[in-house]
Write a structure and sequence with these properties.
CATH topology: Spore Coat Polysaccharide Biosynthesis Protein SpsA, Chain A
Bound molecules: cytidine-5'-monophosphate
Structural class: alpha/beta
Number of domains: 1
Helix content: 25-40%
Order of helices and strands: EEEHEEHEHEEEEHHHEH
CATH architecture: Alpha-Beta Complex
Number of strands: 11
Largest sheet: 7 strands, mixed
């Protein structure tokens, strides 16, 4: 089955406070996204990246959309051969080959989506706008959802074929697949599969990458 990596890398990275797009900020001596590309290129037949307007200089770079899932849709549209799509954020440089392969294997075994996630270690409460606590949730059934997220590509195409405002409200692609009735399973990720959002995350990621090598 043709496995294609889809990397949304078109975010501006405002919370990181970087000059340019977050995916290309230096992390451990190279652009952040390259750590992810190394792994995806081992697992996938091809990798397509959604990049900011003006950065689409490579045949496998496409211009991203206004929101994350629109960038995923644009990249997937450039890979009509994909039978399994492995969506992975440029902002998670600690992805491992083993984690990506476990997601792909779950899709091969019949799931329409298989998504990396970490168990919830904090207590989680729901509160109203004033800060008043309404209730405490059962954390034993809650997961912090990450990427990679592998999908049956046909199901993902169908899930992404929705109006832009629906894409804008989606915080991950699996939620769109769930909305069209797709079956999605959790794949437990190593605890260091962090997302780089703030300057502190970037320092943490660099330390973890250094420790790995
Ligand atoms: O902003 P956030 O960290 O949630 O973005 C997750 C990933 O989605 C990043 O890799 C970012 O580059 C990408 N993204 C994108 N297109 C957008 C917004 C974010 O490809 N319009």
């Amino acid at each position: 089955m043709a496995v294609v990596g889809i990397v949304p890398a078109a975010g501006r990275g405002e919370r990181l406070g970087s000059d340019g797009p977050k995916a290309f900020v230096a992390c451990g001596g190279r652009p952040l996204v390259e750590w992810s590309l190394d792994v995806l290129e081992e697992v996938c037949d091809r990798v397509v990246m959604a990049v900011p307007e003006g950065w689409d200089t490579d045949p496998d770079h496409v211009a991203g959309g206004a929101v994350r899932s629109a960038s995923v849709r644009a990249a997937l549209a450039a890979a009509p051969e994909a039978e399994i799509a492995v969506v992975h954020d440029a902002a998670r440089p600690l992805i491992t080959r083993e984690l990506a392969e476990r997601c792909v294997d779950a899709v091969r075994s019949g799931w329409q989506g298989a998504i990396a996630a970490g168990p919830m270690t904090d207590t989680v409460k729901e509160a109203d706008a004033s800060g008043r606590v309404l209730r405490t949730l059962d954390r034993s059934v809650l997961w912090r959802i990450q990427t990679p997220q592998a999908f049956d590509a046909e199901t993902l195409r169908r899930a992404l074929d929705v109006p832009d405002e629906v894409l804008a409200a989606a915080t991950d692609d699996a939620s769109l697949v769930e909305a069209v009735g797709g079956s999605v399973c959790i794949v437990e990720a190593p605890p260091d599969n962090i997302k780089v959002t703030t300057p502190l995350d970037l320092e943490f990621a660099e330390a973890l990458l250094r420790a790995r090598s």
